[in-house]
Design goal:
homodimer; alpha/beta; Aspartate Aminotransferase, domain 2; 13 helices
C-alpha cells in the first residue's frame, strides 16, 4: 500500500521514544575527556538539574547502561543473600524486578496483581501483614510499561513505612519526567529510571536517585558488585563531580539539553501536557469503540494499552505499521497478541496524538471496512481545545 | 594567551576519542523500537561486521555500558567464589581486572610487571609454573592504556594454553579496531572492548566476543548476575537477533557506520595507518629530546606515554591545554604527574599527529624558552612521506 508518507516512520512505542532535534545536536558536541573540568561541570549540572524531576534532594547519579541496569543497581546495592523482599508485580517489569532480586539471592515475596490493574494500597497492607517476616525492601513499579498502569506510589510508600523498616524502592523507568514525584514526602528511598522514555534520549543512560537512608544501607551492603557499586559513583561525584568509570558522554550532553527543554516548558506544564495526551488518546480510542485495557483511574499518562475484541490487536498493530508507518508495541508475555500499546511520553505533542488516532481510524477501515474516519480525532481535538480554553481562563 | 584557534578544542586523550561527522549523523537516524525487524537487522549487521575486527568466528555481543562493564562481564560470567585466577598487571587497567576478580570472590594471583613494560612471555611461563594451582582463567590487557604498552597477547595465549586448562581472557578496550587480533590462532576465549577508543564512538557500548569453549563455561557459571549475564545476550541473539534488555540504539547505529568506514579504508590499511601514527609521534617526540616512557618494541600504536625530565609532565599538559586547546591525558595512580599520554587511535590521521607535535614544540618554548620549532613536525612529515613512497612502490 502506498502510504504517501515519504517513507517517514512514526514511533509510538513506550520506549525508545523520539529524540528532539536539539537533543541530537547537543549529543553531537565535540567529544571531551571525562577526567577534565569541562566534564565535571557537565555532570554536576545534569545531576543537579535532574534532581527536581526525580523529586530528589540529592543530585541524581548516572550510570552507562539501560533501564534494566538501573533496576539491577537498585537491587545489588541493598539486597543480600536470603533477605526477604516484597515485590509488587503488576506486569512484566515488576516481574523483572522480582527476577533480579532472585538472581541476587533474595527471598522474594511476589505480590501478584492482575495485569491491567494497579496495586491498591490496602492489598499491600494486607499482604505485608500476612507474610509477617522482616522485610528488607519493598519494590514497586511506578508506571508498569507492559500494561500501562500507574501505581499509587505515594500510598504504597506510606504503607511500607508504616508497617515495616524496609527500604521503598521504585522503578520509574517509563514515567519519570512525565509525572509528579517527591522522594521525601512519598518516602521513596531509591528511585531509578532510564533515558529512552519520558526523558527524550536514546537508550543507554541509567539514573539512580538515593536518599540518605539508602546511602547508609548501600555503604554496608556486602553483595558482590563493581560496575554497579553506588558507593563508587557517590564518592566520585562527591569528590570531584566525576564518575568512577567512563561515562556515556554524548548521552549526558543530551540529558543537559533535555533538562533545558523541561525547564523552558516548565516541569508542571510537562506533567499537565502528559495528562492532556492521556485524555486525548483515551477519549479518542473510546470513540472508536475499542476497549481500553486499563481504567481511566489506573492508567498512566505515558502509555495506553488497548485490547481490541476478537484478538485483532496483532492485526491492527501490523496495519498501522504496514500502511501508515506507525510503530506501536504489542503485548508482552501473557498479553502477547491480546493488546497493543501506544507510547505517548517525552517528545510528544497533541498533534502527535491526532496522528496516531488518525492512523487507527484508517487501520480499522483497512481491517474490516468500518467507517470511523474522524471519530477519534474530532473528540481528541475538542478535548485539546477545551483544555487550552480552561487553562487560559 | 590568545590561541587564534576559534575556541576549537583538540582531543588527544586515549579515550574518549573524536567522533567522525558521518558517525554522528548515523547516530542521529530516527529512533526505532528495539523489538522490531529493523533493529534485528541492524544488530545482526553490526555484530557480524565487528567479528573480523575482533578476530572472532562468532558475532560480537553488544551490551549497553562502558569499558569497565565489558571487563566485569568477562569476569562475572566465568569466575566463581575462590577460583584461582592469574591477572597480568602491567598498569591501572590490569589492576582494574584484578580488582573486579576480587570483587567477585576469586583468589587473584597478580603477576605484577613494572609499569611501562610489557609482560614478557617467559615471565608468565615462570609465574604459572611457580604458583602451581589450578587456574580458572588468565587475564591480560592487550593495550595497557595507563602506560601505552601493547602486550604480546599471542605469546601469552600460547603459554596459557600450553601450561593450563585456563580460559584466556583479554581486555582489548584501548586497541581493538587498531591492531591485529585472531581469537582462534591466538587462543583467546573472551575478548572485550569498548566503543570510545579505536572504534570512534562515544562511550556507552561494550563489546564481548566469546568462543565456543567460553560459551560452555559461561553456561554453567553460577555467579550471581542478571544484566551482564551473557547467556541471556547469546540466546536473544541466536533466537531473533535481539538483546535481552533495551540496547543502546543510537550507539549501535554509529557502530554500523564505523564498520562501514573501516571496511572502506580496509582493516589492514587501518592497522598500517596506526603503525605510521605511532612512528610519527615517537620519532617526533624523540626529536624534541623528550624521553619516551615505553620502548619502541613495547609501545602500542594507539597511545604514547612521554616522561619529561624534572617532572614537567603536568606543566606541559597544562600548557597544551591552556595555550593550544589540546587535551592530552596525565598519568594515572603511581604515574600521576610523571607522564603525559597522547591518544592517537580511531579517527586520527597523520595531519592530527603534526598538530599535536606542533603544539608540543610551542609548549616547550612556553615552558622554558627552548626553541625546537619544526624539529618534531619535520621528522614526522618525512616519516609520513617516506611511508607513502615505500608502500606505493
Amino acid at each position: 500500500m502506498k502510504s504517501m508518507l515519504l517513507n517517514q516512520q512514526y514511533l509510538f512505542t513506550p520506549g525508545p521514544t523520539p529524540i528532539p532535534e536539539r537533543v541530537k545536536l547537543a549529543m553531537n558536541q565535540p567529544m571531551i575527556g571525562h577526567r577534565g573540568q569541562a566534564f565535571s561541570q557537565l555532570l554536576e549540572d545534569v545531576s543537579t538539574r535532574l534532581a527536581p524531576i526525580f523529586g530528589s534532594k540529592n543530585p541524581v547519579l548516572l550510570i552507562a547502561g539501560s533501564g534494566t541496569s538501573a533496576l539491577e543497581t537498585a537491587v545489588a546495592n541493598v539486597i543480600e543473600d536470603n533477605d526477604h523482599v516484597v515485590v509488587i508485580v503488576t506486569g512484566a517489569f515488576g516481574e523483572r524486578f522480582a527476577n533480579i532480586c532472585e538472581a541476587f539471592g533474595a527471598n522474594v515475596h511476589r505480590l501478584n496483581i492482575e495485569w491491567g490493574k494497579t496495586c491498591a494500597p490496602e492489598i499491600l497492607e494486607d499482604y505485608i501483614k500476612k507474610i509477617d517476616v522482616d522485610v528488607k525492601a519493598v519494590f514497586a513499579t511506578y508506571c508498569e510499561t507492559s500494561t500501562g498502569v500507574l501505581n499509587p506510589i505515594r500510598q504504597l510508600g506510606e504503607i511500607t513505612k508504616r508497617l515495616t523498616d524496609a527500604l521503598f524502592i521504585v522503578d520509574g523507568v517509563s514515567c519519570i519526567g512525565a509525572v509528579p514525584v517527591d522522594m521525601e514526602e512519598w518516602e521513596i528511598d531509591i528511585l531509578v529510571s532510564g533515558s529512552q522514555k519520558a526523558l527524550m534520549l536514546p537508550p543507554g543512560l541509567a539514573f539512580i536517585a538515593i536518599n540518605e537512608h539508602a546511602k547508609k544501607v548501600i555503604k554496608t551492603c556486602k553483595t558482590k558488585r563493581f560496575y554497579f557499586d553506588l558507593n563508587r559513583y557517590q564518592s566520585s561525584f562527591d569528590k570531584d563531580k566525576s564518575t568512577p568509570f567512563t561515562p556515556a558522554v554524548s548521552l549526558i550532553y543530551g540529558a543537559q539539553e533535555v533538562c533545558q527543554m523541561i525547564e523552558e516548558e516548565g516541569f508542571s506544564q510537562v506533567i499537565e501536557r502528559q495528562q492532556l495526551l492521556k485524555k486525548m488518546v483515551r477519549e479518542g480510542i473510546k470513540a472508536l469503540d475499542l476497549p481500553m485495557f486499563v481504567s481511566d483511574e489506573d492508567a498512566s499518562p505515558t502509555v495506553t494499552a488497548v485490547k481490541p475484541m476478537n484478538g485483532t490487536a496483532g492485526q491492527i498493530k501490523k496495519l498501522l505499521q504496514d500502511n501508515y508507518s506507525i510503530t506501536v508495541a504489542g503485548g508482552q508475555k501473557k498479553l502477547k497478541g491480546e493488546i497493543f500499546r501506544i507510547g505517548h511520553m517525552g517528545y510528544c505533542t497533541p498533534f502527535d496524538i491526532l496522528k496516531i488516532l488518525s492512523g487507527l481510524e484508517m487501520s480499522l477501515y483497512d481491517l474490516d471496512g468500518r467507517k470511523v474516519f474522524g471519530n477519534a480525532t474530532t473528540i481528541a481535538e475538542e478535548a485539546w481545545r477545551n483544555h487550552v480554553q480552561n487553562t487560559s481562563n
